[in-house]
Amino acid sequence: MWILLSILLIIIIGVSYFFYKVSGAVNDSFDPLNRKSSKGQKDLTKQGSFTVLLVGTDVKDSSNQNWRSDTMILAAINPKKKTMKMVSIPRDTYAEIANANATKTKINAAPYYGIKSGVGPMTNTVYTLENFLNTPIKYYVKINFNGFMDITDTLGGVDVNVPFNFNMRLFWKNYTFKKGPAHLNGHEALAYVRFRKYDPRGDAGRNDRQREVVQNLMKQAISLNSIGKIDDILNAVGDNVNHNMRMSDMLELQSIYRSIPKEKIETLKFNGQNSRDNPQNLWYYNISDSERLRVSLELRKALSLPLQTLDGKIYKGKIPKEPASSTPGQSSSTTPQQPNSSAPTKGGTTTSP
Q1: Does residue 346 belong to any structural domain of this protein?
Q2: What are the residue boundaries of the Cell envelope-related transcriptional attenuator domain, all occurrences included (predicted)?
């Protein structure tokens, strides 16, 4: 009996320590959005569905506060239907920025205008995307380069299927990728998801690689194998990750994600066109209002929200079908991104390695 009680006590202490450390890390990286609950948020809560915005910034560590969103993936999750729909929003998307006096520019300039207006960079990114998609955003997770690389290494790397041969220079080092299955470490994975200069599909191809890596890392993060690495994972997170989820939200999200069958995880894609036809001679990814509406309706349907037009009016009729692409499953634009993809946008500059 004493032996059993001793073992039980050790387990209780161990579990308590585990949750103490996890709760500490969650609290340290907790950064709530600077806004009040909207009708869209209340509708989400009523339906029991929610959205998570995954943001990868274009800075190496947390010391640089002048970041822009390099990667944006919105996941719409419906626990009742056990479904998840994910959509990538290209960083060069031409959109109206929130709190910027109706300024239209690259959507990744939203953080800059958030700082300028006093709203905050992450809050303004959420406002801009909610307006662009007419879809409420409940949670977000933001990570910089160091956080991404460290977490990937801590989880033992990530498996990918390289779509074609290419080379990528990152942090003054060259990386070579060969078509076919590959196992990547943190630095290699970052180079893999950032490449787009000579991708024949431009941002569309880059977005597919980003979703591939994010989904595979998520699977590894919720696996039992990662539990023993909790100390390393928490150290990797450090100041490199911010979010607005409580500990209970994270545990619930983990449980829900485990319950969603692979065949019910769907990827939505924007069909737009790259263009430099503007007075500033900048590269923009132009998405038509009809295409925005199509994706918005798909997301709202997935979340069991009332179907609406982009300006919030009742939508009647069927959801439009995805436009035909030159190649099935690809963007209608095959214009490669140009080398100067990190050119300054109105209101801010960036320097990408």
Answers
A1: no
A2: 68-221
Give the helix ranges, DSSP H, for the chain: 2-28, 39-47, 110-117, 121-133, 145-154, 186-194, 203-221, 230-237, 247-259, 289-302
Q: Which domain holds residue 246?
A: 33-302
- pLDDT for position 228: 59
- Model confidence, pTM: 0.79
- One domain, residues 24 and 53: no
CA distance 269 to 247: 31
Give the Cα separation of 242 and 147 in Å (integer).
10
Separation of alpha carbons 78 and 49, rounded Å: 5
Give me the residues of the chain with pLDDT under 70, please. Answer: 1-8, 10-22, 26, 222-231, 234-237, 324-353
On whether both 63 and 9 belong to a single domain, the answer is no
Give Rg (Cα) of the chain.
21
